[in-house]
């Protein structure tokens, strides 16, 4: 990731910089670069960014700097939609805190309350949890926010989707008026905007939504192909790219099933899977787990995966069928690319002669011109329009 700004330029304290060096964070991610300086001023701030972009450190580093470890009261509250995300935020926050004496409490549902109450009574300064459990602990008198300095609403859109609005509002009303509010959200859905308008004071806004992150971390190409040569081209690209993990997107369930048939003959059954709207939720969850664990190498999917499911860091995306809607392109390609690795994601979109216009629409949507990926023996055709502009040509990785 390229950026001229380093962690030193963001206004962070020396001990924070030392800690970042210790854990190997060399340069700030885009959301960190833009969000941290604003958050450090004490202003309310909205950051539009999704999971995997480094958003936890973006809100947690300014929070950690503010906490007085000698004062055993709750000073920072982070609300997150799920137990899993709360646990991730907790783990990342503790890593960032290093051996500072800051005390944390993780307050999530589905876990015994006893330990959580003990941690609070021991003087937790940073509380991370789901709105339901936090509210519950408040009601029982174990949590008070009289000395709260910062409240963070992480993945605000998902919290509202889940139906946490009443809990969130009750919690926010129990926080001091002069607190700082930081809100992180992948989308700025109207409900999120309403919440922000109601509970934040002239917030600054940092937009690092999927489109912008995508441009920086994902190498995107189009490849021309004749309709009847798509499968041989796919096999060739897989052989050339040797992807660590790949999602191949098709437009239809039938198309996905057909490809799955081809690959299930070639690969071991735990290495390839197919996912579309007909698959029951339980099976989808299993597929996603296996993709996250790295066991699954090839997933053939329709847009259900692009839209609803939270996966990032897939090394390759192949749009075997060009997506019908430009937004689906953004969602599909957003499944690759991440910050914690040096490896950039790659996305290749198959385009037939008839689909030149659709490619142009995608390019308008992402405000970028895709370079052509050329595979020898597959130069199906060349569009005149494309020949006129300077076509950047790329081959397979490492060649
Ligand atoms: P997050 O979006 O906060 O869930 O972070 C995604 C992953 O990126 C986590 O594993 C972080 O540890 C890692 N990460 C966050 N910021 C940086 C950074 N500046 N340099 C390297 N890795 C990072």
Describe the structure.
The chain is α/β, with parallel strands linked by helices and 399 residues long. The chain is built from 17 helices and 15 strands. It has 2 domains: 2-208, P-loop containing nucleotide triphosphate hydrolases (Rossmann fold, 3-Layer(aba) Sandwich), CATH 3.40.50.300; 211-393, 3-Layer(aba) Sandwich (Rossmann fold), CATH 3.40.50. The strands form 3 sheets. Strands 3-4-2-5-6-1-7 form a 7-stranded parallel beta sheet, with helices on both faces. α5 (113-121) links the parallel β3 and β4 (126-129). The protein binds adenosine monophosphate. Adenosine monophosphate binds at residues 25, 28-29, 32, 51-57, 92, 339-340. The site of adenosine monophosphate has 14 residues, from α3.
CATH superfamily name of the largest domain?
P-loop containing nucleotide triphosphate hydrolases
CATH topology of the largest domain: Rossmann fold
Mean pLDDT: 87
Helix proportion range: 40-55%
Oligomer type: single chain
Helix/strand/pairing class, anyone?
Answer: alpha/beta
With strands numbered from the N-terminus, the spatial order across the biggest sheet is 3-4-2-5-6-1-7
Over all CA atoms, what is the radius of gyration?
Answer: 23 Å
What is the CATH C level class of the largest domain, in words? Alpha Beta
Major beta sheet summary: 7 strands, parallel
Number of domains in the coordinates?
2
* Global geometry: elongated
Number of strands: 15
Number of helices: 17
CATH architecture annotation of the largest domain? 3-Layer(aba) Sandwich
Q: Gap between N and C termini, in Å? A: 21 Å
Which percent band covers the strand fraction? 15-25%
């Amino acid at each position: 990731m390229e950026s001229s700004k380093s962690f030193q330029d963001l206004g962070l304290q020396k001990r924070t910089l030392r800690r970042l060096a210790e854990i190997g964070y060399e340069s700030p991610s885009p959301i960190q670069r833009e969000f941290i300086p604003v958050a450090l001023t004490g202003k309310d701030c909205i950051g539009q960014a999704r999971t995997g972009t480094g958003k936890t450190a973006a809100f947690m580093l300014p929070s950690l700097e503010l906490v007085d470890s000698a004062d055993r009261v709750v000073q920072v509250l982070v609300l997150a939609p799920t137990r899993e995300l709360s646990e991730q935020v907790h783990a990342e926050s503790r890593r960032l805190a290093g051996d500072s004496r800051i005390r944390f409490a993780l307050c999530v549902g589905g876990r015994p309350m006893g330990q959580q109450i003990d941690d609070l009574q021991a003087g937790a300064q940073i509380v991370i949890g789901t709105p339901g459990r936090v509210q519950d602990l408040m009601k029982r008198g174990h949590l008070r926010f009289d000395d709260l300095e910062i409240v963070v609403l992480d993945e605000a859109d998902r919290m509202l989707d889940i139906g946490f609005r009443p809990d969130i509002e009750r919690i926010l009303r129990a926080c001091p008026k002069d607190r700082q509010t930081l809100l992180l959200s992948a989308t700025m859905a109207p409900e999120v905007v309403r919440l922000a308008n109601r509970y934040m004071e002239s917030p600054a806004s940092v937009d690092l939504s999927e489109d912008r992150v995508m441009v920086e971390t994902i190498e995107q190409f189009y490849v021309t192909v004749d309709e009847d040569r798509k499968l041989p081209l796919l096999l060739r690209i897989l052989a050339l790219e040797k992807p660590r993990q790949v999602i191949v997107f098709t437009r239809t369930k039938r198309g996905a099933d057909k490809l799955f048939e081809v690959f299930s003959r070639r690969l071991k059954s735990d290495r390839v899977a197919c996912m579309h709207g007909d698959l029951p939720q339980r099976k989808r969850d299993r597929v996603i787990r296996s993709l996250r664990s790295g066991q699954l190498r090839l997933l053939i999917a329709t847009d259900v995966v692009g839209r609803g499911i939270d996966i990032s860091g897939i090394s390759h995306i192949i749009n075997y069928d060009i997506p019908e809607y430009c937004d689906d392109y953004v969602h599909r390609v957003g499944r690759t690319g991440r910050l914690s690795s040096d490896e950039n994601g790659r996305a290749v979109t198959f385009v037939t002669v008839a689909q030149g216009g659709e490619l142009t629409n995608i390019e308008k949507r992402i405000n970028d011109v895709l370079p052509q990926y050329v595979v020898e023996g597959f130069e199906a055709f060349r569009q005149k329009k494309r020949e006129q502009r300077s076509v950047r040509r790329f081959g397979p990785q490492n060649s």
